[in-house]
Amino acid sequence: MERSLISVVMDSVDGKGQSLVSTILFAVLPIAKVFTICFMGCLMASKYVNILSANGRKLLNGLVFSLLLPCLIFAQLGQAITLQKLMDWWFIPANVILATISGSLIGLIVASIVRPPYPYFKFTVIQIGIGNIGNVPLVLIGAICRDNSNPFGDSDKCSQDGNAYIAFGQWVGAIIVYTFVFHMLAPPPGGTFEGIENEKLPTTASTNIVVPEKMPLLISKEPEPIELESSRKGKIIRRLCYLAEKLKLKQMCQPPVIASILAIIIGVIPFLKGLILATDAPFYFFTDSCLILGEAMIPCILLALGGNLVDGPGAGSSKLGLRTMVAIVVARLVFVPPAGIGIVTLADKLGFIPKGDKMFKFVLLLQHSMPTSVLQGAVANLRGCGKEAAAVLFWVHIFAVFSMAGWIILFFGMLF
């Protein structure tokens, strides 16, 4: 029976429990795999090869987000979850919320000290506070579990449990991004991020000129829906539409979120689970097809990420300035994870984490130590600060290769 390089090293090193050398190997090798595939994507997008063009990377990102990632979430989360596990896993979405709160508070402190250029104060808070709780952890779990001698045990169970835990928290992350982040990244009053350098700050006089022009338009449109207002049903519909618009429900209903909700619903109902998700189910061919497609998610997203790095940070870095950029990178990758370790350790002592489930605790720790969320970059594009967000994502992901390896070594030391 073949033995991996890691198992040979583990057997050859004396000492109680897992050695420092094997721990470092387990932590560094997944990062090395990620870096290698990203490098290939960067090479494919370079001017020397030019296979992954900008349009090609956009299509690849769309394919991952709309098909491959939802398929992986649906199959892995649906097979792993039950009604009992749904109640046992309640701290995963709670951890995402706590990670957002602690990260945003650290971002607020750092932004108050650094004082980023106007109007990037709230932008700086968001870049520090919102981490990637989906794509990057899924890639790392896949790389770690791929080795048969991984510390979490059976490779298939390791991958299924890890992906299920990560997917279970993604719907909360989507809600946070399209409510809290969307509000925080609003452009400055009376202007936009793009034109802030050339335009003066809005004054009281200019504001007074605009308001009277808008007032008659609002008044003239009020009496039009007379029949709708006279009906109680019409009022309820209007309020529901207004609520949906305020909560950004349309933006929240992204394919990964829909896949998570469907997986939870089908997974906790025994009849539906036995009909679709069980290995002997009559419609298991659909689940198996999703698993096949989901396996392509990790290489595709890494190739796209590596291809995006070929363009460099762009013009966004100059707008933020070196001081602000360094503060964001250091705060996100160095200051935020220790706060997460404190939160997870306290939750473990309070009994919020299932006993003996080391993968569960590892995923919770990963949620605090990831680089800035890619999804908030999409929201930043909608709000007019996409170039600045792209610059942050570039530098954060470059340095995250080293920081993630260090934090994973620490996490393995805590768990094993």
What is the gist of this entry?
InterPro entries: Mem_transp_PIN-like, PILS2/6. The chain has 416 residues and is mainly alpha-helical.
Question: Strand tally, please?
Answer: 0
**Beta fraction of the residues?**
under 5%
Give helix % range.
Answer: over 70%
Quick one: biggest sheet? none
The rough form would be described as globular
By DSSP (H or I, 4+ residues per run), the number of helices equals 22
> What is the string of helix and strand elements?
HHHHHHHHHHHHHHHHHHHHHH
Class by alpha and beta content:
mainly alpha
Q: Roughly how many Å is the radius of gyration? A: 24 Å
Distance between the termini: 26 Å
Mean pLDDT: 80
Any low-confidence stretches, pLDDT <50, length ≥5? 1-18, 196-222
InterPro entries: Mem_transp_PIN-like, PILS2/6
Organism: Dioscorea cayennensis subsp. rotundata (White Guinea yam)
Keywords: Auxin signaling pathway, Membrane, Transmembrane, Transmembrane helix
Main location: membrane
Question: What are the main properties of this structure?
Answer:
416 residues, mainly alpha, 75% helix, 0% strand, globular
3D architecture notes:
By secondary structure, the chain is mainly alpha-helical. Helix content is 75%, strand content 0%. Helix 5 packs antiparallel against helix 6. The longest helix is centred in the last third of the chain and has 30 residues. It is globular and about 60 Å long. The two termini are 26 Å apart. The N terminus is likely disordered. It is found in: Membrane. Keywords: Auxin signaling pathway, Membrane, Transmembrane, Transmembrane helix.
